[in-house]
User: Fold this.
Amino acid sequence: MIDFPFLSDICQPTDSRIVLLVVDGLGGLPHPDTGMTELQTARTPNLDSLAARSVCGVTTPVAPGITPGSGPGHLALFGYDPMKYVIGRGVLEALGIGMDLGPNDVAIRCNFCTVDERGRLTDRRAGRIPSSESAPLVEQLAAITIPGVEVIVRPVQDYRFVVVFRGDGLSEDVADTDPQRVGIEPLDPMCKTAAASYTADAARRFVQAARDLLGARRTANMILMRGFASKPDWPAFGDRYKLTPGAVAAYPMYRGLASLVGMDVVPTGDDFDAEIETVSSHMDDYDYVFLHYKPADTAGEDGDFDAKVRSLEYLDMRIPALLDLGADVLAVAGDHSTPSTLGAHSWHPVPALISSDSTRHLGAPEFSERACAAGYIGHIPASSLMLHLMAHAGKLDKFGA
Amino acid sequence: MIDFPFLSDICQPTDSRIVLLVVDGLGGLPHPDTGMTELQTARTPNLDSLAARSVCGVTTPVAPGITPGSGPGHLALFGYDPMKYVIGRGVLEALGIGMDLGPNDVAIRCNFCTVDERGRLTDRRAGRIPSSESAPLVEQLAAITIPGVEVIVRPVQDYRFVVVFRGDGLSEDVADTDPQRVGIEPLDPMCKTAAASYTADAARRFVQAARDLLGARRTANMILMRGFASKPDWPAFGDRYKLTPGAVAAYPMYRGLASLVGMDVVPTGDDFDAEIETVSSHMDDYDYVFLHYKPADTAGEDGDFDAKVRSLEYLDMRIPALLDLGADVLAVAGDHSTPSTLGAHSWHPVPALISSDSTRHLGAPEFSERACAAGYIGHIPASSLMLHLMAHAGKLDKFGA
Assistant:
């Protein structure tokens, strides 16, 4: 969270309601032919009109020049400093496939790899075998048992899967078995602290059992384990801001991120219309709602400029429905930029707007990277957006007399 | 102060002189009918012309979304990080009524309250009795003596008053006696550290004596003590920046804040004209002058848009006199926004301009929230404005070779 050390003194529960719409991968870069970004290219009359009535700015997700993954990008928007609140990779991988993690779980990112007859790595990703080929292998591994530890094995995609150890006395302080290069044997899962020797031993048994099950194969005949991580024990969002927060997201990863900070994850459907419906029917249950819109990021990741434009135009058509929700504060922000021209997440500042009764006439001429950068909020760390939302909702008392 | 850890290496005493005009509550919000803020509405040809010849920006007083009181707002402008340099409530209350506090003093915010026949609180503010009713009660309490501790009792307003304990061995680490709710007895003043038991004991004696004096009354028959605080021992502004600072303010609170950071508080009159006169006659005595203008905040707090506009127009007419002072750097800034539409302090960024010989042609088209937000300085923490002033005055050496 932003280091405002007196937050608990000034946060004030009120009846006002905040809706934060996170447009995944919102920011973009200009198309080389037109010089206009996806947001500038898209016909977005509703967002533009909303921007004119809002205060606008741009958010830096983590730090200048730093490209965030989904985890840090969202944590920042929730007001958690992503350089301080770091999510282990195993946990992220588990959240991404919708696994519920308990406090006694250690999650591990795993993948199939290929070793030669002397056990030396020849391919760290087993030729990136497709899910169709890896699925039966994952099923085989799911049969592995370790005394005293519950073992859960779940496929992710292609050569990747997740292993979760569940039980008392487990620890995340175990080193990766992936040596990060071929020609040598996978590393032994070494404990980094004495308290983790039991977990390292469980990992060793799992690897041995996997080798026994897969060893007869020519490829995908071994596994690598990385990112041992347990669910972090962070201050709950609701306690921190004295809010009753609800999260509405069609994708498991974002529900998982919301659950990490203790938000109430509301069951919803597969797409944005279903999400809006869910929010609409729960507006009386929460005074803060995190609403996630995925398609902009997907199109950006695909490097499909036109698809990202369309996803933003689709979003724009849903803005009236969002306004109809009747929130006192409606904010539109992004967890990071995903410029189609890069086909990937990027470090670029992300446009943001905050609409409330107190922001009339201070807005930007349109909702775009350039217009928001010149907006009244200016350039802010994404992790301080939450304070803006709280202030605009009238939920922050004065600091000092 | 802003965390530039090499400040003492680069601060350089010179003959140049800085005048910082703090317009209390400077920033505003648009009037719903016109879409224009107080600053935009006011006819301010001198400020606008000055802005055009200055560099402009907006300051965030404490942190995004945080509404500051006068204390944090001014400390930031003096270059002290208000999240690190926190003023106790008792001290602020004492400063507000112009009391001089010494290093051996503990100041306490007190108020009259009403208890029932069993000593349980029925009204934590004694019906908010007016000053006319509380004045004689304060006078009664002023007669209380405590062995070994000098006791000073001063009225503030209505039901509020200040008690200062003066003497050796006192400590601020005493808990409030206000339980924050009615139906129970006031709390005993408990020491939070062993070193504070002597002070807690003095407080206990004071409360007991007050009860004896007031107990026969039907209302305002008891007192509550809060915010035990001693004067902080902070690095002096003059030492930090190698300046000889003077403060000119008509209101006690602002003189008190200047004295907290060791500025020389210059006696002055009741209004801004008197203040300017005072500055004018002391320009050879100081190389930094803090000059305070109060009416904009007062009008904003009153929710009187037109009065705030008039206060800014009045100020504008005095700008030529400020320019005549001949300062090398003249800055106009605010401790916080006080939008008339809110009738209270707010978190909104505050316009600022810095005029010096090195700033011609980089200015803003007018002195307003919007124009300054797009200014060359951009959005800065208020606590870094001081570095800008020092730089423009040629008082900062190069950092690194």
User: Anything to note?
Assistant: DSSP finds 14 helices and 13 strands in chain A. Chain A touches chain B through 32 residues (CB under 8 Å). The first strand of chain A starts at residue 18 and ends at 23.
